[in-house]
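$ fold --in a.seq
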Amino acid sequence: MASSKSNDRSSHSSEHSGVQDQPQRKASSVAKKPMPSVAPFVFAAGDPQEGNLATPINNSAFTRWFINQLPAYRQGVSPFQRGLQVGLSHGFWLLGPFVALGPLRDTNLALFAGLGATIGLVGIATLAIAVYAESAPLPPIATLTTPKPPTDLGVPQGWRLLARGFWFGGTSGAFFATVLLLIFTF
């Protein structure tokens, strides 16, 4: 038994001695690429914890121009006009999916069922905007793409006006789309 322990020790020590006897590998000299002088992603505010990156997409002149032309960020527009423009577009395009994919899509009532569903969804969205207005929202924060956010949406009255404009625009857009579909398809 003593001999088996000594054999175990000798085999164990030979395993370790084999590892020690191996020559160390030298680090291969790999040609390193030079770092670009301008990084494609930088922190917009300089603070990595903020999470606002300046990328080639959001930092381009076209992207900033496009976003600042949207009704939510355009300068010189009242909250009611902002809501009206956003509501018109939403009411106009929401009608199509309700007409084409709704449960009454194969009947003569598809257009009017879609109109009712669109007005219902615009009403729900208007209610959501009105509830948000009552929650005393914080003023918008300036970002890389929107350096001058509208200040009128920093108070509840601005959001109330936006909700009224959204309701009026959404229902008007849905009725306009309905009239166009009545004229051109039926």
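$ fold --in b.seq
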Amino acid sequence: MRIKLDRTLCDGFGICARHAPEYFSLDDWGYAVLVGDGIIPEQDRADVQRALLDCPVHAILEIAERRPDDPPQPTLEEPDLDNLRTDADAAQWDMTR
């Protein structure tokens, strides 16, 4: 498991530091700081997963690992803006204006 902490989202609840103090500490203002490189060994995964799930602002993110033999992710098709139909949405637009 690999995690990342988005400090711009942290509101300083400190729940992560209570669940997994080996991986989260609090700075002088009470905001979370990730301890280490974010790689979590299997034996500590439950505590870090609990911290991730209990974070009220979702500041802790799990980073999915991709392997070289994984199939490529499908590409998203861009909409054809020149031929975009808007007739079906006209009634909805009239009601929301």
